[in-house]
Amino acid sequence: MRPYEGLFVLDTSQGIAGPYCATQLAALGANVVKVEPPAGDWSRGLSSKAGTHSVMHTAYNRGKRSIMLDLAAAEDQARLAALAAKADVILEAFRPGVARRIGITPAAGKPDVVFLSISGFGQAGPSSERPCTDSIAQAFTGMVALNQGMDGIPHRTGPFFAVDVVTGLSAMVAVQAALAEQQRDRLTHAAPQRRVLDVSLHQSSAALLGYNIAEWGLQQQEPKSLNTPSGAYLAKDGRYVMFGLLREPDFVLLCQVLEIADLSQDPRFASFPLRSEHRADLLPLIRSAFLARPSTEWLPRFHAARMLCDQVNTPLDWLADPHVQATNAAVTLNQPGLGALPFPALPGIGPWSVKAPDLGEDTAEVLREFGL
Fold first, then answer.
1. What is 8-211+329-369's CATH number, 2.60.120.10, 3.40.50.10540, 3.40.50.300, 3.30.420.40?
2. What does pTM read for this prediction?
3. Are the CB atoms for 29 and 64 separated by under 8 Å?
4. What integer pLDDT is reported at residue 150 of this predicted model?
């Protein structure tokens, strides 16, 4: 699907959230021009590297063209302004106020430009100018507090950059909604108008916790665990097995599979609320049962019982899984300098294998294309 063929997107963002939004637009056919300083997007310097390329930069900047502009120079400021005046979508991810100082504003775009700002805490409010990262947004919104490990310590939620990625997804949804509104305006011959979008790591992280925040807000205290003893348990072979329970009869079935059927008759464990209340007594019994067999024996037993269960995989396990291979769930991208990189197919869109640009490799071409 290439619904955004001909759409000109000017991506002045760095890092993950903004670039990820823009690379999804590129996957859907948009002409995405990424503006980078002479030092390049900071993501070029992190993860496995080769020249100006890195795995992180490749992941979030595929399908774009890169131009290098030194915004301390008046000539390059003028070039950026000229590009902004022709863009259908402009993305920026500076700390609030910085974009304005260098001329990246809604007014710099076309009368109907979609202007997207991504920041840590949004463009307004007492914390708007505070620096923010994925882990800080997780801590601020309560995500870390809800991810208490078996060591009793709250941890940031993996994978790395989970909030950055969901912020990029949120931004993509907002941009698509704005573009749909523009199309509606054209069909009704309404006057063009700009759409100014404010997407933050803080709000995106909180949106992930919608149910949790509502439940805590209603009860004004920590709610009981929903489905104790669901979770990951160590098997005899050193591999972890994850299972889930959705209904009360599932606990009886769990005990049968684990060969501890008598446990389901214990009045302390007769319901989800009671199992949550007595989890300190229950969890050691479940852990002990799992240690009796290797994961390779537990998985067939759980699957035969049609229970929610799977092995806790590493990314390499996932890539090697027969289902992943049979459904082409991953596609190989041959990135110059780095080599073959396996990327998951884009959900609903499918395999997409387009390289990320070298730093500034398209500067001359883009400036010539736009008469600059």
1. 3.40.50.10540
2. 0.89
3. no
4. 62
